[in-house]
Amino acid sequence: MEKSITLNKPLKPKLSKILKDDFRRNKVKYAMISVIVLYYILFYYVPMYGTIIAFQDFVPRKGIMGSNWVGFKHFINFFNDLSFWKVLKNTLTLSFLDLCICFPSAILFALFLNEIRCRTFKKTVQTITYLPHFISLVVICGMIKEFCGYNGLFNYIGSFFGAERVSMLQQPNMFKWIFIFSKIWQELGWSSIIYLAAFSGINEELYEAAEIDGAGRIRQTLVVTLPGILPTVVIMLVLRIGQILGIGHEKVLLLYNPATYEKADVIMSFVFRKGLEEFNWSYSTAVNMFNSIANFTFLILANTASKKLTESSLW
Amino acid sequence: MSKKMRRIFAAMLCLVLILSQVACGKKDASPKTVGTIGEVENKYGTTYPLNTGDAVLSLWCILGVHTDYVSYEDMPFYQAIQKETGVDLDISGPASGAYDEAFNLLVASGDLPDLIMYDWGNEKIVGGPEKYISDGYIVPLNDIFSAYAPNLTKILKENPDVDRQIKTDGGNYYVFPYMNLKDSHAWQGPVIREDWLNELNIPVPETIDDWYNMLTKFKDAKNVTPLLYLDWNFSQTGFISGAYGELRNFYVEDGKIKHGAYSEGWKDFLTTINKWYKEGLLDQDIATLDSSMKQSRVISGKTGAFLGSGGDIESFKPMIEKVDPKAKFVGVSYPVLNKGDKPKFGQADNKYTGLMSTAITADCDDVELAAKFMDWFFTDAGRLRSQWGTEGVTYNLKDGKPVLTDEVLNSGKVNSILREHAIEYYGISDPDQYLQRMIYPEQINALKVWNETDMKEHLLPVLLPNEEEAAEINSLMNNIKSYIDEMYIKYMLGAESLESYDTYMSHLKELGIERVLEIYQGVYDRYQAR
C-alpha cells in the first residue's frame, strides 16, 4: 500500500484534495455512512482475524498468540475425512435443487400475482403466502415432523388414495424433497416481493405498444415483463450462487436423524457439530473457511459469466 | 426485527469474544503456575457461616433458574446457602437445555468464573480433565482438599471406593463431586398399560416371546403401534437388546471391555427389532420421536408400552386419567430370553457419574473461599439443605431422619416445590429422598422391579484416558458412533438387509473399534490397579 502511494506521488495531493473538498461539501452524508462502514468493519472484518485459528491447534485458554501452529493439517484432515464427499455431495444436491426449483418458483409466482387484476384477491394471496416466513424455524420443523409422521397429514391423504404409509423423515431419499418443498411453502411469497417491485419499474407504454402490435397476455409476459425484470433476476441468481455451499444448516439440524444422515448431512451442519458439539474449534473453522472460499469463488465466476452474457452484474 | 436485533447481538457477542481472546493471549504471555497453593491461611475461619467480609464468589452452574423465579438469587435455595455459608455468590448459568453449547462458549470466552459446575467426568470434556488442567482451565485439587476441605476429605477416607472413582488416572482430584454413598436406585425401565393387560387377560410379560405376544394382542385389540421405543436417550439401558446379552455402549464383562454393537448377539437383537418394526409393533416414527411426542402418544392412548422413568409415571398419570379414567401404569422388569433369567442389563448409576460436578478454575483468586464454600455441601447441614431443603417447609426431622412434609407431598407438584428449596445435585445424593418423593405406589413398585438386574456388574466406572489416548479415541469414536447409530436404525427399519451384517462388522473394524477397545482396556486395567 505504502509503495503504491510513493510511486504515485504526484497524484497524492490531488486525491487528498478531492477527498477533502468532497468531505467539506457532504459532511452529513459522510457522517451517515460512517456508521454503516463502522458496522461492517466491526462485525464483518474484525472477526475475520479469528479465522487464523484454522491453521492452529487452537486452545482458547492459550489464545491465538499462544496456540500451536499446524499449517494445513485441518484442511488435509477434512479432505481425507470419510464424511467429506458425503457432505459435499449433499450440500450440492440440496443447493442445486434449491436453485432449480425454489428460485424459479418465486419468479413464476410473482408473474402469476402480476396477472391478477382483482386487487383484494391479490393482496389476500400475498399476505397468506408471506405468513409462513414469519413463523420461527423451530416451529416450522415441528410442524413438518408432525405432518410427515406415520400418522401425519400427508400419510393420511396418501393412504386415502391407496398409498402405503411411511414415516417420511426416516426415508433418506425423501429428505431432499421435504427440505425443498417446505422451503417453497415457507419462502415463496417472501422471495417474490423483489420481483413484484421490479414489475412496477417496467414502463406501461411498452405493454400498450405490445398490445397494439397484437400481442396477447402470454406474449406480453414473454417479450415485455420477463426482459424487464431480467437484471433483477440475474442479480438475485448471482447472489444465490454465492451461497451455493452455505445451504442453511438450522433446518437440516432440526430435521435429520440417524436414518437420514447419509443424505441430509451438509457442510454447515458438519461445521456446527464439529465446532459446538465436539469442541474442535480449529477443525470447524478450517471447514468453514473452505466453505467461504468456495462460495466466494462461485460468486466471482457467476458474476463474470453474467457480465459477459447479460451485461448486468453485481460489480 | 427481533431476529435482526438478535443477529446484531450475536455479532456483538462474537466481537467481545474475539477481543477477549486477544486480551487473553497477551495476558498469558507469563502463565501463572496453577495447582500449587501457597501457605495455608485459613483467613475465613473454620466454622460456618464463614467470616468472609465482602468477598464474592462467582459460580456457573448448568442447572437453570427455577421457572417460578427470575434469577438464581431469588430462589430460596441459593438465598439459604449464601446465608448459611456466609459466602456471597454471583451465580450465572445457561438458558435451560442448551448447556453444552453454553459451556463451550464460556470456555472459549477466556473469562472464567471461580467455580464451574458441569459434567466434568463426561466424554464431552474432550481430552479429559487432565487436559483441562494442563491447558490451564481448572486446577488440580489434591492440596486444596487437604488444606481447605476437611469434610469432603473425611468422607472420601471413609469411602475408598468412591475416592478411587473421582480421581484422574494421574491421581489428581479435579472436582468437588456430586456422588452417591449408598447404592442408588434404578430410576428407569419398561412401563406397560396395566389396564390393557387386565382387559385382554395377558400376564405380565417376562421373556421376549411374552413381549411379542403382548404387543401383538395390543396391536390387534387397540389398533395402535403399541411399543414406543424412544431409544436415542436410552442406549445405556439395553432394553430388549439386553435379552441378547448386548447393549449399544461400552460395558465390562469378566474384566474385558466390550461394545455391544460390535458383536454377534447384536445381530440377533436387530433381527428381532426389525421383525417387530415390520409387523407394526414398534412406533413407526421411531427415528424422529422426541420426548414431547412421547408424552402426547402415551397420554392419547396410542402407546401400550414404553421405556420410562418414575418421573414419567408421576407426570403422565394425572394427565392420562383425565382422558381415560381407567388407565393404569405398571413398571415391569427388563425382558429376558428364557423364563427365570435375571436381566443382564438395565439402568444403574455409578456412585460417581462425573455429572454435575464442580471444578475450581484457574482464574479463581481466592481458592480458600471457593474450597470452603464447596466443602460445606459435605457437612451435615449442607447435606440436609441440598437434599431436603428448608426444615419446617419441605421436611421435618423425625427420630433424627428427614421426612418430607405432607404439604409438599400433597401439593401435586412435589418436584417443583422441592427444587425451590433443595437442589440435590450439590454434594451427596440421598436415595431416601428420591424414594420419599415417589407419591404413587406404582412408582415405588416400578423402582423395585427395575432394580433387579445385573447391570452394576457391567457398568464401567468414569474412565479418564490420558491426553494422547483421549485424542485418539475422540477422533476414532466420532465416526464409529455415527456409523453404529446409522446402521442400527437402518437395520431396524429394514432399509439395510441383515445379510450385510458381516460387512457392517468388518467396516467397524476398519474404523478402528478394536483400537478403541484396546485403549479403554488399558485405562480400565490401570483403574483396577489403583
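qc> Chain B has 22 helices and 14 strands.
qc> done
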